[in-house]
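Whether sequence alone determines local backbone shape is best considered at the level of individual chains. The sequence in question and its structure tokens are set out directly beneath this paragraph.

***
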Amino acid sequence: MASHDGGLRNLSSADGAATRAAGVLDVMLTGTVFFDIVFTGLPHRPAPGREVWTEGMGSGPGGIANLAVATARLGLRTGLAAAFSDDLYGEWMWQVLCDQEHIDLSASGRYRGWHTPVTVSVAMDADRAMVTHGHPPPGPATRAPADPPAARSVLVDLGDPATREARWWRRASARGALVFADAGWDPEEYWDPAVLEALGSCHAFIPNAQEAMGYTRTDSPDAALRALAEHVPLAVVTDGASGVAAIDSTTGEQARAPALPVQAIDATGAGDVFSAALTAGTLRRWPLEQRLRFGVLCSALAVQQFGGSLAAPGWGDLADWWHTVKTRADAGDSRAQQTRNDYGFMAEALAGADTRRVRRAEATIARFSDADRGSDAPTPPPQPAAD
């Protein structure tokens, strides 16, 4: 591989970018895209000198792509500024994000002589372990666009000091964009006060319960939520099986939503899916409880698939789920009847939605997605075996 120096070259910042009708994006994102390989269904933990066969494997774009795909699949016009390599992984991820998911990559760049960061994630014991290999991205790729495309919202990670200091999202906020922020887990458990200070330019903050208590120095999720509501208009605290709670000071609403019981395969990217759904509901001006339930639902559907970006549900998945709930409720299932009552807003939300099938994470880098094969597109003829 070429050395990581000035020989790196931006191949094209607009080549192959998804074109959109003139207008403002719904969501603008920037960050690092990883090639994710996810293993699920391990019979036991890996041990030195032993080989473990897993029940499942999926691959797809990861990192910031988790958010980008999740928002795009919910019908939000999504723009992404990120670096892509010209290697096989980079070319494939560009194609998936641009041509398949219709994400606007006009602010992204493609670079020669730098390889795609790769993460292997192993799901086990209701958690995951990850191994990542990569090199620092090209110099130009580390700088967010000085003048990003106009957008109605941006999503940022305030746990990253470089992001906190970046001007692009503050500039977007000043222009009227709603900033949805999280901060992630602090492995040192220092809980930098600078995170709360940065919330002055944000519309929403979406930590989990442990993170919220850490940053606010409180001893309960409810106390943390009340403390965060003093810093940001929309404070949201997710708490796993206990559900999610939020306070929206712009509307005076307080709401809770319980978790949906599901059999999870992998939780990779579930938090990103929740944030995407919350953003979509906020931009649609839904009541707070509906926004929370929508986020819970989208996350519950995501964790039943191989993790990462391609686990994110599309409106077709949501339509299938709603049809199943109604069918079971009509058959007298009391739990389904309660769910139908709680999620009655989905009938209106699905009206006119694009309910086509979406691609799922596959074990190999497939040339054609399941969605392609299920469409009217002709199936390519089989190729003769090599001698």
